[in-house]
């Protein structure tokens, strides 16, 4: 029996493939439901400790290398790099910059409200930033307190700061002379806003209610 002639071009190969196989030749069946008999990928990962977590709760980083002889070498990364990544330097810088700008804005508004003449912008910037310890104190306080802001004890500290700063600002703006208000209002307003922002929303709302109730009890008008 003569052997079948080989196809000479792509069209003949496609025609021959259609004649030799159809969809009915493929067996259809559900996948097997029994447990796997060999090792799964999760088992292999656990053996190689790829899913191991460090004591701090962050995933450990391991470098895997295949040697020329086919063996696998795993080298754990040092924790210094992960610690550097988790340090919130950028967050502290952004918070400090926002609070420093808020302090300058309140300083400008207070001078515009109580000053005998319209304040000059550039000298006011120098007096409230370069010649004032306020920016450095804000940076120091934010670096110390902001990274632990979510801790319950720190929430208590920020809640106390928000209530004290808010009530003190209301009392000073209603009773103190205008020179005292010009000195106290920017710092107290900055601390008040910072304390409220760091709190959870329900605690922040409660602090605002307490501050407003204290002002109403003292007879101060809010409009």
What does this structure look like?
It is a single chain. This protein is mainly alpha-helical. It has helices at 10-20, 41-47, 79-86, 89-114, 121-130, 134-145, 152-175, 178-198, 201-218; strands at 62-66, 72-76. The chain has a two-stranded antiparallel sheet with strand order 1-2. Strand 1 and strand 2 form a beta hairpin. Helix 8 (178-198) packs antiparallel against helix 9. The termini are far apart. The model is unreliable at 79-86 (pLDDT under 50).
Task: Itemize the secondary structure elements and their pairings.
Elements: H1 10-20, H2 41-47, E1 62-66, E2 72-76, H3 79-86, H4 89-114, H5 121-130, H6 134-145, H7 152-175, H8 178-198, H9 201-218
Antiparallel strand pairs: 1-2
Helix pairs in contact: 4-5, 4-6, 4-8, 7-8, 7-9, 8-9
Short description:
The protein is mainly alpha-helical and 223 residues long.
Comma- or semicolon-separated keywords:
single chain; 223 residues; mainly alpha; two-stranded antiparallel ribbon; 9 helices
Strand line-up in the sheet with most strands: 1-2
Strand content: under 5%
Return the average pLDDT rounded to an integer: 78
pLDDT under 50 segments (min length 5)?
79-86
Order of helices and strands: HHEEHHHHHHH
